[in-house]
Structure formats: structure tokens, C-alpha cells
Design goal:
alpha/beta, 24 helices, 6 strands, 59% helix, 7% strand, globular
């Protein structure tokens, strides 16, 4: 109920209903006073003034309804399907992209469309529509589109358009709403110029659900036309190609995407929805890619045994690639699996580069490619790609975390800590941001603050083995061996009943001086396909073991011989 009320209040503000009410009341008071004065001069009876007052009161709800329905402005589109420009709006002209307030409108942010359906759980659909429009606009050559993560950072708020433009570096903003009732859709959209708040374009679509892809395509084409951006390809080519003909499967896929963005246990829910979609349409490439991504995340974060999760991820990724070889998402997933499961560094890079060739504006591919390059010791290229990911998606917490993490591993600790604090400002409740910051503080010998930050991470996500291991390493550094031993005992006990990444126990054994035991755990890590083994050439956690004659053999088995793991300073 509260969520529904906040949505309605946000919509009232967006449509300037409050503004209309205030103006109406002020003007009404003036009219009433003027009428009293005029009627006194004409010696008309008091009933005339009372009639004016009644008419003014009755007119208020009419004015508010008009403000809601038509968003009162100099001109409103009269018919569905036809976009109009508004008199007084600044002219557009081709020019430099991405400069807020400039004469060019070649850059845009798509804010999350408001869910105005009666069912608050239909939010997944309005989010999905927003994401699809972002993806469609990203295909328009010469149009700079703010990434999904950055645009969605404004979800649940009512920011001023100028603030959005300043934070995302865009000249125009698209906002709107989605109402879904059975098989009917009502979608409104309006394009606003950041520099002066003028509406450049507005439209409302009342259609059937089967028209959903056509609506997405129409919106993207209307915006490209209004911003005077030339569409590549033939005039009849679509910007939005339906990935499935089964609307129910598409609906389930959108639900999966909704839960993917929530992380944590949301990933398991997402996996279930993707698999339901595939029951209805086994040839749905994006749903296969979604299944693959969910398993990669579950295996990579230690929630599932990698040896169990990653083969399932690969099976789904291979099928996705068979069905959608020209989709960047399928190559993105194959790159992850070639890296973390197959240890085929050449194939992994080939898939990452192919994904960027198909869609160079995908920030997550740049960020993950940069992360991958760090594991190979290609540090300059790694940092360049990680920074490119942030340029494309400046409010993405994950992009900031990955850059800060690599900087910490390379010994660039002040820069790393600053970067990770920026990530925490984006979401202070993030377990991962607190965990990685705790690691960076430990590497920077700020042990007290590191311990405090790692305890905060565990309060947010339970006693995750990664954070426990980091806490134990910090405890050893301050001479609290008993705390480290207690954590060792806990991880060992949990290993007997649940999955604990073997590398975590190996790092703790190395810190406690149990070198032979550490190598036993690294052997288990290799057999279990522990994803932290892919970082063996550069991760500082391995430093205590690098001088042992057994270490080069492990590096060679990982296919990383010759990688220079020296820190950059």
C-alpha cells in the first residue's frame, strides 16, 4: 500500500499536478476578489459572488484531472501514435554528443518507468519495458545512452531533470509510466530537455499485450527522429527484434531479469523464471543466457559448488550461442565460462571481444573484460577497460568495486580505497563493497578499520567464507592468533557439511604457517574448480606461498605460466 501511494505521489509530482493546484488557487483567489469589487460597483446581489465562488471550487478538480490526463503544456498530442513537437522547445541540431545543456540532444538517460498498474508486483514489467527501450536506443549509432544501472539508481525517487543530466552527463531524459491490466497496456513516455525542462516529445500508447515489441520499437524510433539521429540500416529495419514469439515466456523472462538485479537469493528466483520461460519456448536464446549467468553467479560466489554450477552454466551458454550467435549476451556468457571453467584464456578473450564488437556500449562487458585481463597480468589494458566500464555506467556499484578490487591487488591502495568508498556511497548496504573495502584496508595495514568493515560485511550477509577468511588474515596481522584459529575451525567444520571455497582455507593456513596444508587445500581448489584459482598469478593472498617449489607447478596447470604477477605501484 505504501509503495502504491508513493508511486501515485511521484506521478502527481511528475505531471505537475501540485503546481497546477497552487496556481489555480492563487488565480482563483484573485478572480474572487476581483469579482467582489466589480459586483459591488454594479450593485449586484451577493448571490453573484457566491455563484463565482461555487464555480471556482467546482473548477479545481476539473483542472487537476486535466493536469493528470494531459500534462498541461502549450500543446498536447491529440491522437495516439503521432508524436508532436511543442512550440517554444529549443531546436535540435546535430553536433557533439553527451553534453548536458548543449545544443545537441545526442545523449539520453531513460529513467525507470513508473508502474501505475493496480498490482504493485507488476513492477517487473515496467522495469523490463525500461530496460528494453534502453537496449533499443543503445543500437542507434551516434546516440549516447546512459547504462541501465546508472539510470535505475534513480528508481523510487523523484529527481529534478537537471540533477539527472548532471550526474549522468546527458542532454535529454526519457521518463514515463506503464499500466498493465490483463492483456491491455497503457504506456506513456515523454522526452525532456535537461537544460531548460522543455518537453521535446510526448506520447501515449493504448495497445494489446501482443503489441509490446512494436511499442518499444516505435518509442525508440520516435526519440531517434526527435533527436535528429540517423538510423543505420534500411528504413524498414526494426530496432527491436522480438527474441521470442511466446508472450508468456517473455513475461517470465522479464521476471527473471527483475530478480537478477536484486542479487543474493534473488538469483535463485531468477533462475526459476528463466527455466519456466524455456519450458514455453526452448529456443529462447536470452533465457538460456539468463540461466547461464545465474549459475555463473551462484558458482562464482560460493553459494553452489563451482563443479556443480559451472557445467550447468556452460550447457546453457552453449545452447544460447547456438540460438543467438549474433547476441552480445551469449558471447558474454561464453567468455565467462571459457575463463572460469575451461581455463581457455584465448577463447575467453575472443568471446569478450566479439560481445564488444556486437554491442560496444555494454558497460558490464568492458568491466568483466578488464577484470579478466587483470588475471592475465595485462594491467594497463585491464585498468583502461575497467575505467571504460565506469565511463559508460558511472553509477554502477559493481563497476567501481571491480576497479577498486584490481587496484588493491596491484598495490594501488590509496586509489583503491577511495574507489571502494565511492562504491559504498552508491549503496552502503552492499555486502560485497564492504567486504572488498575491508580487504583493501587490510592490505594497506589499516587493520582496525579493516576488522570493523569486515564485521559490517558479515552483519549484512552472514558469515560468508570470503569475509571470514579476510577477518582471520587481519586478526593474524594484529597478533590475535586465537581469533584466526577459531575461524579456521569454523570453516573446517562447515566444509564437512556445505561448500566452502578451498582457497579460503588455503590462504588462512598460509597465514598461520601451515604451508603443507595450504597446498593440500589448493589441490582441492583445482579439483573443485574454485574460481579464485584463476587469480593465482597475481592475487596477493598467494604471496606467502610463491617461494615454495610446488607453486610454479600449480600456476602452470592453470595455464598461467609466464604471467608477471608483480604489483604495479
Amino acid at each position: 500500500m505504501a509503495s502504491r501511494l508513493s508511486t501515485i505521489l511521484a506521478e502527481l509530482k511528475r505531471r505537475k499536478v501540485y503546481h497546477v493546484a497552487v496556481v489555480y488557487v492563487l488565480v482563483g483567489l484573485g478572480v474572487a476578489q476581483g469579482a467582489d469589487w466589480a459586483f459591488d460597483l454594479m450593485e449586484l446581489p451577493n448571490v453573484a459572488s457566491q455563484l463565482v465562488a461555487v464555480l471556482l471550487v467546482l473548477g479545481l478538480p476539473v483542472a487537476l484531472v486535466l493536469a493528470w490526463a494531459y500534462e498541461i503544456r502549450p500543446e498536447n498530442p491529440a491522437e495516439l501514435g503521432e508524436a508532436r513537437d511543442y512550440p517554444g522547445a529549443p531546436p535540435t541540431s546535430p553536433g557533439r554528443v553527451g553534453s548536458p545543456g548543449s545544443d545537441s540532444h545526442g545523449s539520453i538517460a531513460v529513467l525507470p518507468f513508473a508502474n501505475t498498474s493496480d498490482d504493485p508486483e507488476a513492477e517487473y514489467f515496467s522495469d523490463g519495458m525500461t530496460e528494453e527501450i534502453i537496449n533499443a536506443l543503445a543500437q542507434v549509432e551516434g546516440l549516447q545512452v546512459a547504462a541501465r544501472t546508472s539510470s535505475f539508481s534513480f528508481k523510487g525517487t523523484t529527481p529534478e531533470i537537471a540533477e539527472v543530466g548532471a550526474r549522468l552527463g546527458v542532454a535529454t531524459v526519457l521518463e514515463g509510466s506503464v499500466r498493465k491490466a490483463g492483456g491491455r497496456l497503457r504506456i506513456t513516455a515523454q522526452l525532456v530537455n535537461v537544460s531548460d525542462g522543455f518537453h521535446l516529445w510526448s506520447e501515449r500508447y493504448d495497445r494489446q499485450m501482443e503489441d509490446v515489441f512494436a511499442i518499444q520499437d516505435e518509442i525508440a524510433r520516435a526519440i531517434a527522429g526527435r533527436l535528429q539521429v540517423t538510423l543505420a540500416g534500411r528504413p524498414g529495419d526494426r530496432l527491436v527484434e522480438p527474441a521470442t514469439d511466446n508472450l508468456e515466456a517473455y513475461d517470465l523472462y522479464l521476471k527473471g531479469r527483475f530478480f537478477v538485479t536484486q542479487g543474493g537469493e534473488g538469483t535463485r528466483k531468477a533462475l526459476d523464471f528463466f527455466e519456466q520461460a524455456l519450458v514455453l519456448d526452448p529456443r529462447y536464446a536470452l533465457a538460456h543466457a539468463g540461466v547461464s549467468g545465474a549459475y555463473v553467479w551462484l558458482g562464482g560466489t560460493g553459494i553452489m559448488r563451482p563443479k556443480e554450477a559451472l557445467p550447468k552454466a556452460r550447457e546453457a551458454a552453449v545452447r544460447a550461442l547456438e540460438l543467438g550467435e549474433d547476441l552480445a549476451e551469449t558471447h558474454f556468457q561464453m567468455g565467462q565460462l571459457a575463463w572460469s571453467l575451461d581455463l581457455d584464456w584465448s577463447e575467453a578473450e575472443g568471446h569478450f571481444l566479439r560481445a564488444l564488437e556486437l554491442n560496444p556500449g555494454l558497460p558490464e562487458v568492458h568491466s568483466l573484460h578488464g577484470f579478466f585481463l587483470a588475471s592475465l597480468g595485462r594491467f594497463e589494458a585491464s585498468l583502461a577497460e575497467l575505467r571504460r566500464g565506469i565511463e559508460l555506467d558511472p553509477l554502477s556499484q559493481v563497476a567501481h568495486i571491480w576497479l577498486g578490487q584490481v587496484q588493491a591487488w596491484l598495490g594501488q591502495l590509496p586509489d583503491s580505497i577511495d574507489r571502494l568508498r565511492t562504491a559504498l556511497e552508491l549503496d552502503p548496504t552492499s555486502w560485497n563493497a564492504n567486504h572488498i573495502l575491508g580487504m583493501a584496508l587490510r592490505l594497506n595495514s589499516a587493520y582496525g578499520e579493516a576488522i570493523e568493515t569486515l564485521r559490517k560485511a558479515m552483519a549484512l550477509a552472514g558469515r560468508h567464507p570470503w569475509s571470514l577468511m579476510e577477518l582471520a588474515l587481519a586478526s593474524v596481522a594484529v597478533g590475535d592468533r586465537s581469533q584466526a584459529e577459531a575461524i579456521y575451525d569454523e570453516l573446517l567444520a562447515r566444509w564437512r557439511s556445505e561448500y566452502v571455497p578451498p582457497t579460503n582455507i588455503a590462504f588462512l593456513c598460509a597465514a598461520l604457517g601451515r604451508v603443507d596444508e595450504a597446498f593440500d587445500w589448493l589441490e582441492r581448489g583445482f579439483e573443485e574448480q574454485d574460481t579464485l584459482m584463476t587469480w593465482i598469478a597475481i592475487l596477493p593472498h598467494y604471496d606467502a606461498l610463491r617461494g615454495d617449489p610446488r607453486f610454479p607447478g600449480l600456476v602452470e596447470r592453470m595455464g598461467l605460466e609466464g604471467v608477471d604477477g608483480r604489483r604495479m605501484t
